[in-house]
Amino acid sequence: MKTVDLSKTSVRELNQALHDQAQTCTEREWQVLQPAGKHNLVCGLDQNLSIDIQGHAGYYCAGMNKKAHVVVHGNVGQGVAENMMSGSVRVKGDASQSAGATAHGGLLVIEGNAAARCGISMKGVDIVVQGNVGHMSCFMGQAGTLVVCGDAGDALGDSLYEVHIYVKGQVKSLGADCVEKEMRDEHLQELAALLNRAGVNEDPAQFRRYGSARELYNFKVDNAAAY
Amino acid sequence: MCGIVGLYLKNPALEARLGELFEPMLIAMTDRGPDSAGFAIYGDEVAEQSIKLTLRHPDTEFDWEDLAEQAKTGLSASLEWFQNANVAVFKLAADESAARQWFAEHAPDVLILSIGRSIEILKEVGLPVEIAERFSLASMQGTHIIGHTRMATESAVTMEGSHPFSTGMDLCLVHNGSLSNHNRLREALRREGISFETENDSEVAAGYLTWRLRQGDTLKQALESALQDLDGFFTFTIGTRNGFAVIRDPIACKPAVLAETEDYVAMASEYQALTSLPGIEKARVWEPEPATVYAWERQGQ
Lengths: 227, 301
Known about the structure:
The complex is a heterodimer. Chain A is of the alpha/beta class. Helices cover 10% and strands 23% of the residues of chain A. In chain A, strands 1-2-3-4-5-6-7-8-9-11-10 form an eleven-stranded mixed beta sheet, covered by helices on one side. The model of chain A has no long low-confidence stretch (mean pLDDT 97). Chain B has a seven-stranded antiparallel beta sheet with strand order 7-2-8-1-14-13-15, covered by helices on one side. Chain B has a five-stranded antiparallel beta sheet with strand order 9-10-11-12-16. By secondary structure, chain B is of the alpha+beta class. Chain B has helices at 18-28, 64-74, 96-106, 128-134, 182-191, 201-214, 219-229, and strands at residues 3-9, 36-42, 51-56, 79-84, 87-92, 111-116, 119-125, 144-150, 165-168, 171-179, 232-240, 243-248, 257-260, 264-268, 284-286, 294-297. Chain B is globular, with a radius of gyration of 18 Å. Chain B folds into two domains: 3-43 and 128-297, Glutamine Phosphoribosylpyrophosphate, subunit 1, domain 1 (4-Layer Sandwich), CATH 3.60.20.10; 46-117, Phospho-2-dehydro-3-deoxyheptonate aldolase, domain 1 (Alpha-Beta Plaits, 2-Layer Sandwich), CATH 3.30.70. In chain B, a hairpin with a 2-residue loop joins strand 11 (232-240) and strand 12 (243-248). Helices cover 25% and strands 32% of the residues of chain B. Chain A binds chain B through residues 36-39, 55-56, 58-59, 75, 77-78, 93-94, 96-97, 115-116, 134-135, and chain B through 250-253, 255, 257, 270-275, 281, 285-287, 289-290. Chain A: Its EC number is 1.4.1.13. Chain A: This is Glutamate synthase [NADPH] putative GlxC chain. Chain A: InterPro entries: Glu_synth_asu_C_sf, Glu_synth_lsu_3. Chain A: It is an enzyme of class 1 (oxidoreductase).
């Protein structure tokens, strides 16, 4: 295992060393010490690496991740795993706003709470939050799954497309065009599989499902001529 | 953009080290605000019938001793003073309005940065590290301190436009964000007798709180009213003589992180600014919720 101490090495050097693994992988396991809330840690990876960040990270941690598996042993700032393509990111603490924003794939697990706009404009990622999510979560979410084991803030799923949202606790309010939907067997199976992948011990039967009513302007074929 | 930081001590044993603990926090926020910086420190409190003024003159050679002698006679008050770079702190046995009036008449070039029993505000244009060094921040003592590093948006890069802003006794505010309704609100507050030194939006927020507190609100009530009446983006940190508060607007685009241990409560725009604090690894660290007032006050004072 390779250890990088960020009190001695710059973030740019760390990220470059990790990018260098994309061509020829010489080291699968990495440990990052003294992250000290620094921004843009382990961004833009493109290799099947396993990375442990020992402490709190700043903004855009593990952004644009492809293939790598990142665990943050602390909190993260805004935009963790933003635009992730594949792989996984696990946050042991809390995440600030816009966690998993625009992410296309992979798995994001937040063991604490996520703040506002979790999963904003998500495009295929699976997100599991063990705590609560803030307001406007999943705003304009297009594809993927958002699972919230705690409560959701105001305007959940506003202007939603095809994301499946599962919430165990209270939803403060639903956003425009987001409605509660029937929890059928296929959804229980989907949720059980995702909770299993995330390593979260919850009973799928205790969750409610939310999704798009598909009533907004952009869902009406009659409006297609306007473009 | 702007960076804001605050440190409120719960353990009196740390009071001698307040400036030393706070200096790296302010400097850590240089990336968020490199054009000017400032801080408001609370401590060295004067007696109940006295006030403390932080005064600034652009000339570092200004004759403060002469002004102190004049003020002593003019206000018929006992006076102690000390100088720190181009700023002086006058401790006077006088009331606020008499002091304001006397300085306006007799020393129009001298700007009053703060008035209160405990507060001292120091701010200038320049990098946070330069401001910290100029005023010897690291050697300062006190109970709590809030600071700001500025990247100007709503008004010019000037000393007057830098934070913290104080519009009332011992009250000050630092702001990350921008307010949309500050012009109309400033006019409304002027009619209520609140005076403003600048065209800055954040000063209006400080003035608003001064007005609400004058109306009899508690700090918590004043901040809850601010959520209704201020339109725009904000994370505020507010200092009072014995307290410290943090509030974010309901949309909460502007960042904030809080940390608490048995020894202190610390606030910063980013966690990076907290990493130098003792025991931070074990602190409870969390993001304050939108539209929620977080306040800490010393009891029995």
